[in-house]
Amino acid sequence: MAKLNPYLSFKDQAKDALEFYQSVLGGELNISTFGDMPGMPGVPEDEGSLVMHGQLETSGGLTLMASDTGSMMPYVAPTSGVTVALTGGPADLDSIRGAYQSLAEGATETLPFELAPWGDYYGQLTDRFGVSWMFDVGTE
């Protein structure tokens, strides 16, 4: 079955961001650096530690991927819209609330995670890496 997953682009903070997301969401993190691929064309030697591809797989079935953009490619910063949406149903309320609270460390909160007028728990923030998140938990 096909999956649709967020793929985040960083200038040079992908490893730190992925490790932070792992501390919040749990799961298994796999990171490949440009230096892991000897002879990669156009990669300066001092950028070998940058993340070529990182993937976080959580036990709950979430997948989050990211990479760095070294000097060999043009960097495109995240857009101003929502980049990652973490959503669920009533059984997910505690884990999503916990993720919001953990990601809020060093973040800019746009909307606090609370019961919204339409009946869902909802919140938004931009984390300390500049990635915007939306959280929505449907109620019964």
TrEMBL record:
Coiled coil: none
SUPFAM superfamilies xrefs: Glyoxalase/Bleomycin resistance protein/Dihydroxybiphenyl dioxygenase
Signal peptide: none
A Pfam short name: 3-dmu-9_3-mt
UniProt domain PhnB-like: residue ranges: 3-133
Taxonomy, superkingdom: Bacteria
Name of the protein: VOC family protein
